Amino acid sequence: MTNSDIIDILEQTAKLLDLHDGDPFRIRAFSSAAFSLDKVPVSLTEQYVAELTKLPGVGKTIANAVREIGDTGHLAELDGLLAQTPPGVIDMFRIKGLGVKKIKTLWQELGIETLRDLRQASESGRVAAIKGFGEKMQKNILDNLAFLESQAGKIRMDKADRLATQLRDELSSLGRVEISGQVRQRATEVDTVELLVESDEPVAVQSFLNGHTGLTQHRADSSPFAWRGQADGSDVRVAILTYPANQFDQQLFIRSAPEAHLIEKGPTGKTLLQTALQISPHNPEEAIYAQTGLPFVVPEMRENPQAFAWARQHQTDDLISWDDLRGTVHNHSTWSDGQHTIQQMADYAREIGLSYFGIADHSPTASYANGLSAERIRQQQAEIDQINADYAAQGIAFRVLKGTESDILGDGSLDYSNEVLSSFDYVVASVHQTLSMTEEKATARLLRAIENPYTTILGHATGRLLLAREGYPIDHRAIIDACAAHNVVIELNASPYRLDMDWRWIEYAMSKGVWISINPDAHAMRGLLDMHYGVYAARKGGLTKDRTFNAMPLAGMLVWLEKRKKG
């Protein structure tokens, strides 16, 4: 159990206690603890009760609950609350804008116990008629239901990657096992986790899988060569396909590309699929492309309809990779809502091979995230100066850069005075509040921020949260064109919750000469590793290392930032 898993359980317990009119003090205890523990840098599962009670917001009741979760993976109190609550009512918590009170009203006054009931009640106008709801809330519910339905059965890239890797390791005793399908293509959202097993004994493979305690087979969807079902604790589909050695490599290729890619014809007149089915066994994927007369395309790019055009103009080595990254510029610390200090974050950045670390803690409007006042900015920058002086004294060629994540306010202005903004090495400008906007309003708001001479980087451009919240609509071309005109970098927010900007707009941004920065938006040391997911998404869009902002070496970055500040 990770800290995030434990915090999720505490939050859900607080919500369901509130839903069932539980003790207000107990509700507050669970809710406060979930908020406080989000910033704790230690692993909660490794702490004893006595150690847990020393943490902020944790009394003996919560400490015992955390210990129970860590030991068993469950909380009996939550299990009891879940047993009293219809699953559909629990699903309502996923709808943005519906809090405990409104869900309780829908459940108790209208008798709504499923999302289907909620849709019908909204479509008939019954929800709008309830006091405190109205037409706007009813429309919001319908819009959110439509979005949730479109995302059903999917998981994010990071969860799919972990599940696929876990299954591959657990199945390794069967022989050669490879991850294929959407996970190998690094899809941002995955509806099927697929693996291939090399074996001449499909019955033995099926027997092994059906004896695996973490897997449940859907027999109607399966066949002797294809096990289909689910992994425990996940709604996503799992497919494990068995192929003999003389078909395995061809099938690994075929199962790792969409149909539109496979039917591409080369000058030979054959498609990639035809070549793959006819090529001699054990040939690498590169040989399939070569024999078709087409340039090789890496698995990540095969979903990209412009992949062949890109491959005719570039080499695979031109694509950005983890090893090309030299630094990171959008991160948070304990000064705002991060879990680790600037020193800890910077040292970890050095440990993973980077040569600069940029802090971008929140601005005052983000009060929920402990946004920094102008006075606290001065204090933080003094701390950064000392850290850099210490590095220099030790002969360490590493630099902490002074940045901020300034909120883009409702009118498009930034959340500090010009005097404060001018004190930073760079400014990440992001929208965090008032996300319900028309395309016209959202675009105008971003354009004004981009035109601000202090804006260096446009952060998570659409505000989307994958599988949870649709981004606000924007005119992507207008935004990218403006960034090109004002020399503003566009962030590819590498958090697997966001991956925003969408990879489909990378080609257009590069064509306009816009830099793309792969930013982890890290709130803890290991959050820096989320740049792996950003690299995957960037490669899907064909991002080259020479257009990746944080692939710039330290000396080049310092020159670029200084030159831009001078205009």
UniProtKB/TrEMBL annotation:
Tagged with keyword Nuclease: yes
GO CC terms: cytosol
One Pfam match: PHP
Domain Polymerase/histidinol phosphatase N-terminal span(s) in chain numbering: 327-410
Species annotation: Fibrella rubiginis
Domain of life: Bacteria
UniProt GO molecular function: DNA binding; DNA-directed DNA polymerase activity; exonuclease activity; phosphoric ester hydrolase activity; zinc ion binding
Keyword Nuclease in record: yes
GO terms classed as biological process: DNA repair
Key words, A-Z: DNA replication, DNA synthesis, Exonuclease, Hydrolase, Nuclease
Protein name in UniProt: DNA polymerase/3'-5' exonuclease PolX
DNA-directed DNA polymerase X domain ranges (all copies): 1-303
InterPro entries xref list: DNA-dir_DNA_pol_X (IPR002054), DNA_pol_lamdba_lyase_dom_sf (IPR027421), HHH_MUS81 (IPR010996), Hlx-hairpin-Hlx_DNA-bd_motif (IPR003583), PHP_dom (IPR004013), PHP_phosphatase (IPR050243), Pol/His_phosphatase_N (IPR003141), Pol/histidinol_Pase-like (IPR016195)
Domain Helix-hairpin-helix DNA-binding motif class per the UniProt entry, residue ranges: 50-69, 125-144
